[in-house]
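HUMAN:
Just now I want nothing more than another pair of eyes on a protein record. I would be glad if you read both lines and explained how they fit together. I have put the entry right below:
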Amino acid sequence: MIKVGDPLPDVTLQEYSEVEGNGCSIGPNPVKVKEATAGKTIALFALPGAFTPTCSAKHVPGYIQKFDDLKKAGVDEIWCVSVNDAFVMGAWARDQKSGGKVRMLADGSAEFAKATGLTMDLSARGMGVRSARYSMLVKDGKVASLNVEAPGKFEVSDAETLLAQTRG
C-alpha cells in the first residue's frame, strides 16, 4: 500500500469537463498524474463509486464546502478519484455542482487504485474492484498525509481532517 513519502503512481486518469456557455462537454481528456501534480499541492480523495449514498451526501459536498479554506491553506487543486468511467464522473460533477472546485477524475480500469494498493473488492455486490475510501494530501507528486477509512466507515477522509493536516 502507498504510504507517506511515496510518489503517486505514474498513470493516466480521465476527466470529462463542461464547457461554459453552450452546454456541451469536452472529453474524456487524459490527466497524467505525474505531470498534473508536479509543483502543486493536491487535496485528493477517493471513494468507491459515483452517485453512491455516502459519497454523494457527505464526501463530495464536504470538499465543495471547504474549497475556500483549502485554497487559503495552500491547496492548488482538489481531486475526487473513483473507479467509474469519465462520462459517469462528468454527470456526477454536474449533479454535485463541483465545477471549478473539485476535479472529478475517472479511474475507469482501477489502474490508480491498484497501483496505490487501495482497492476493495465489491464483486459480491455487483460492483467489481473499486477504490477504498481515503484522502491524501499530495505535495509535488508525493504523499504528504494519508487517511484510509475502515470498510464501511466515513470518519477520517473528510475535508475537515485533510484541511487540519494542511496546517499541521
